[in-house]
Design goal:
The relative contact order is 0.14. The protein has 246 residues and is α/β, with parallel strands linked by helices. The protein is 49% helix and 17% strand. Helix 2 runs parallel beside helix 3, helix 5 packs parallel to helix 6 (136-145) and helix 6 runs parallel beside helix 8 (163-182). Strands 1-2-3-4-5-6-7-8 form an 8-stranded parallel beta barrel, surrounded by 8 helices. The structure holds pyridoxine-5'-phosphate (PXP). The site of pyridoxine-5'-phosphate (PXP) has 19 residues, from strand 8 and helix 10.
């Protein structure tokens, strides 16, 4: 299990004033130096936070895993192939959403992914990951497409407040992770994770590899600094289970 830091919201802060700072690439370098295994960015179609020049700067600067999160549009696939990241996580994208609101609806997108998206990645070294809710039908359809990994959408778990809902969501994520692993794909996870809810996820969901964390981590870094915040997340991910604060 390793930490990938999503640096989108460093760009959000930069863009709020139209200045050149804070620079997402500089932030990404600090995250790597603090021990993060990689960096995630989402180049959105409307360029709300990360911009095209950021993508190329990140590609030049990052030594670890680079995860290019994107909608599976022709425009994004073209940029992604030019940039050649290790991993491309394909997500649904809605213009009005504040953040990615759910996983891909595989029944809806299957034909398009089979005929247009997956063939476009053929002959590249880019691993393809699909962002999915932990539904067995979606996971089976993703497997049929031949993707390398599935990122489980942890947002519903992260937003749950009552213990019964938290338990149910953890169970769904656990079953999903077991199925993905049994089908021979890599299990990634992300959305809404923070220092408080991460321990329960780690305790309950097996086989997870890349954990993608953005908003809460970048927010915490305002108080703690980015270096310390990344180190605290890594410490928590590596700590013995009974040392974790749930
Ligand atoms: N994974 C995916 C696919 C996402 O869309 C996001 C949000 O950009 C994240 C992980 C990170 O979520 P958060 O910012 O809530 O940590």
């Amino acid at each position: 299990m390793q930490l990938l830091v999503n640096i989108d919201h460093v760009a959000t802060l930069r863009n709020a004033r139209g200045e050149g700072y804070p620079d997402p690439t500089e932030a990404a370098i600090v995250c790597e130096q603090a021990g993060a295994a990689g960096i995630v960015f989402h180049l959105r179609s409307e360029r709300r936070h990360i911009r095209d020049d950021d993508v190329y700067n990140l590609k030049r600067a990052i030594r670890g895993v680079l995860d290019f999160e994107m909608a599976a549009s022709d425009e994004m696939i073209k940029i992604c192939k030019e940039v050649n990241p290790h991993l491309s996580t394909l997500v649904p994208e809605g213009r009005e959403e504040l953040t990615t609101e759910g996983g891909l609806n595989m029944k809806k997108v299957y034909n398009d992914f089979e005929n247009r998206v997956m063939p476009a990645f053929e002959g590249t070294d880019i691993e393809v990951s699909l962002f999915l809710d932990p539904n067995p039908e979606d996971i089976h359809l993703a497997h049929k497409l031949g993707v390398n990994a599935i990122e489980l959408h942890t947002g519903t778990f992260a937003n749950a407040t009552n213990p019964a809902d938290i338990k149910r969501e953890l169970e769904r994520l656990k079953e999903g992770a077991i199925l993905i692993h049994e089908l021979g794909m890599k299990v990634n996870a992300g959305h809404g994770l923070n220092l408080k809810n991460l321990p329960a996820l780690i305790e309950n969901v097996p086989h997870m590899e890349d954990i993608s964390i953005g908003h809460a981590l970048i927010s915490k870094s305002i108080y703690w600094g980015l270096d310390r915040t990344v180190r605290e997340y890594i410490k928590l991910m590596k700590s013995d289970s009974n040392m974790r604060l749930v």
